[in-house]
Amino acid sequence: MRRWEQGSDVLVELARLAVVIVLVAVGYGLGDVAAGAVSAIDPDTARLVTSLVGALLGYLFGGVGGRRLLRGVDTAQERLRRVEASTLIAALIGGTLSAVAAMVVVSPLLLLPNRAVTVPLLALAAICAGYAGGRLGAARGGDLSRFVGVRGNLTVSAPSRGGGVKVVDSSALIDGRLLDVARAGFLEGTLVVPEFVLHELQGLADAGNPQRRAAGRRGLDAVRVLQQEHLLAVEVTSDDPLDVHEVDGKLARVARERGAALLTTDSGLRRVAEISGLRVLDLTLLAEALQPPAAPGDRLEVQVTKKGREEGQGIGYLADGSMVVVERAAARVGEDVLVEITSVSQSSRGRMLFAVPGSERDDDSDGHGDGDDGRHDGGRG
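-> structure tokens emitted (381 positions)
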């Protein structure tokens, strides 16, 4: 804070110095006029006196002007602080392009002989066009940000449309997996959140039932996190088909009008939307598709392709490339072995599954595999 105050004092003093220099120069120029008006004063003395008067007036008026300038800067800063950066950038781009275009269009005026008139006209045209272009750019700042791929909360004048747009319902916002998918980078484009969905979430957050209240707050928090962490572009829209009363019908109408996909975890809404010809992204189906191909207790057939690092181990691979370490299968390289998964390990290098031959696990379940268990433990050790 102290450093900021020092910077403000420097601005005031610089403004005072500029005014002092200007008035000293003016006073020096008026010295000859004063010497001609008063014959008793020689020109050098007159210039010295008028320069000192100019310096004194510059010091006084320069301080006043500097403080006024500082207040103006503070006011502009406070106003600009409430304006989004995307709006400022769009206004700057729009103003610059408009001013340049105006100068190009009006530049033939410079061919006229009277430069005292043509140059001010050219400057006036550039200023007017720049102002108009700046206001137009500021009004479309959100649309420009969406076009260049800016993420976060967008205030747009033209609704987002097309295949990269996704209309989200309350069930997907409540589902915590939405944030995980967005953080992993699998959601792109613009996420459209209708206001009637936010009202639905607010109603849940105000409900008396603790579970419904927690679900509503989780959904509202999801919208806030998506905006603040800039995971993707978020457009909150007031689109609300008044002739449709059910929320599911409103969502389908908004998605259809925008040519967008519908993001949900509601299986009923998904089936209705698919019948209507809408593209649906169901987080539940995505989670099922990403489930591991095998879990502990599953049985499957694996071809042992080579020996493992540990004694007695055999190595095989699933169709997705996951490695399966089969105990006591080193002697069965090249054979298809029915195995039972005992554990699954996930690391940065991929998924690894550990298994034992299925016939041995059958012997264990019948109570005849004590000796095998002992050999198994010894082999792992």
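The chain has four domains: 1-79, 83-139, 152-289, 299-380.
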